[in-house]
Amino acid sequence: MTAAVSFRGVSRHFGTVKAVDGVDLDIAEGEFFAMLGPSGSGKTTCLRLIAGFETPTAGRIELFGEDVSGRPPYRRAVNTVFQDYALFPHLNVLDNVAYGLMIAGVPKAERRRRAEEALSMMALPGYGGRKPSELSGGQRQRVALARALVNRPRVLLLDEPLGALDLKLREQMQDELKTLQRKVGITFVFVTHDQGEALSMADRVAVFNEGRIQQVGSPEEVYARPRTRFVADFVGGSNVLHPGVAALFGGRPAWASLRPEALRLGPPEGARITGVVTAARYLGAATRLVVDLGAGAPPDGRSDVAVLVPGGHPVPAPGTRVGLAWDAEALHPMATE
Amino acid sequence: MRPDRAPWWLKAMAGGGLLFLHLPILLIFVYAFSSEAKTFVWPPPGFTLQWFGRAWARPDIWEALSLSLRVALIATLVALVLGTLCAAAVARTRFFGREAVSLLVVLPIALPGIITGISLRSAFSLADIPFSFWTIVLGHATFCIVVVYNNAVARFRRVSGNLIEASMDLGATYGQTLRHVILPNIATALLAGGMLAFALSFDEVIVTTFTAGQQATLPIWMLEELVRPRERPVTNVVAMVVVLVTLLPILGAYYLTRGTETVAGSGK
């Protein structure tokens, strides 16, 4: 099956800045795909390359097997939901939603009907006569979604779609976007710097750093088996163990990741590894402890690990010596570095 | 908190300021109806409407008025095209010397009109361009561009760049985006800029004296009338016309640009 979106050695350099640097990527049709990374990692530039707002300085971009590298945005079967929604302030909601249809030459009665349908699908029936300035942030987002989806694009691009919403609305929209994507069945590609958002919504996640893709995989893979130290650290604050420390834990002497929730506390007597609790942070459902192993700190690594103690378990006070237990398979050696 | 009521002396001073600004203009209006033809006498010995008839019947006034209107119209159109393009370039793109361009465009309005006039005159004679209707238009366009540019650049900066991308993302070409998104969003700014430009051009004297040949625009005609008066009140009638023709566009521009503090397309 041909991929919905594929990148072949794509680079986008701005002068000396390598915003995107040799990216290879395949996004399958119907997939909910997340591009995750810190700001400046190249994820947004990749989205803009798919939309056609940027042209690659090297490499090829294909949409459904067709090379679109030099094609302008208005000739791509792709629509975008912008971070600030970019609704047209001089048009009312209905005309905003119908804009793409108007440009495509759809007759007035039909585009009106389809725009109203799209608004109903986004739970905004009867809002057509309002101006974008009269809507709340969440409503604007729905209008932006309706405006993009009404054109029946083959790929929908979302640039930090939830960034401008408050926490409660953000969680609600995460569920709604996921449901919406299943309902319309088209490929969603979304950009986010929030690992929680990426893990909870996406079928697959690409983790970006400094213009390159560090790892592509399902949320479970990226979370449990990070390929690089950057991924381990960025996706959910895993313990990144120095080769020396990894060996202590019974692994190969290579960089390894060990999730804080995979560690269990026990009495120090008879434990293979013991340490001293140096800090505790209460998180509600759990408490995050920092345990200093004191095992002769390696030069460029840390000798302390984070341990997540689930609620209901006794939490030792700082200064207490504790023993650590873990399952051997939880220790995940990383391929590079 | 409600501000305290202004004390009586502050009100009196504000009233005095307004009188100082507008009383002379009111006097001109009154003199337009005076029955005394030679000098300004206060109070006017009698009131008459005959000067309106006289003014109406003078072909030189019609000629000057028509020239002024045509010059203002063409200069405004030239300024609308050039000023808008300039503003789009400065507000929308980054290039070497952008700040300098932005300053250079605004400079003509800061320069004394007499400098603009002298330099234009010497440039015209250097290039062997005879003085004509078009030399006046060119002279006026120099400062008309500035007001259009200023209005347009402010609006361009407030229209989010994403709107243009959104339009193209939804299938619109550059031309369609210009027509359906850019123009509707900058229309009022252009109209306001154009009206101000028109008003500026219509009552301009200094640059015109250097760039006009034998032709007289309405303000130039008035100046000549003051030097060798024939029928003073007729000049006052014309003055009223000038005030109205310049005041109305300025009021219009004020109403068009007020209440637009919200940033178009910022989305929040």
UniProtKB/TrEMBL annotation, chain A:
GO terms for biological process: putrescine transport. Residues 5-235 form the ABC transporter domain. Keywords: ATP-binding, Nucleotide-binding, Transport. InterPro entries: AAA+_ATPase (IPR003593), ABC_SmlMolc_Importer (IPR050093), ABC_transporter-like_ATP-bd (IPR003439), ABC_transporter-like_CS (IPR017871), Mo/tungstate-bd_C_term_dom (IPR008995), P-loop_NTPase (IPR027417), Transp-assoc_OB_typ2 (IPR013611). The keyword Thylakoid does not apply. One of its GO terms (cellular component) is ATP-binding cassette (ABC) transporter complex. PANTHER family: SPERMIDINE/PUTRESCINE IMPORT ATP-BINDING PROTEIN POTA (PTHR42781), SPERMIDINE_PUTRESCINE IMPORT ATP-BINDING PROTEIN POTA (PTHR42781:SF4). This is Putrescine transport ATP-binding protein PotA. The lineage of its organism: Bacteria, Pseudomonadati, Pseudomonadota, Alphaproteobacteria, Rhodobacterales.
Automatic annotation (TrEMBL), chain B:
CDD domains: TM_PBP2 (cd06261). Its main location: membrane. It is found in: Cell membrane. One of its GO terms (biological process) is transmembrane transport. InterPro entries: Bact_Polyamine_Transport, MetI-like, MetI-like_sf. GO terms for cellular component: plasma membrane. SUPFAM superfamilies: MetI-like. Gene3D superfamilies: MetI-like (1.10.3720.10). Keywords: Cell membrane, Membrane, Transmembrane, Transmembrane helix, Transport. PANTHER family: PUTRESCINE TRANSPORT SYSTEM PERMEASE PROTEIN POTI. This is Spermidine Putrescine ABC transporter permease component potC.
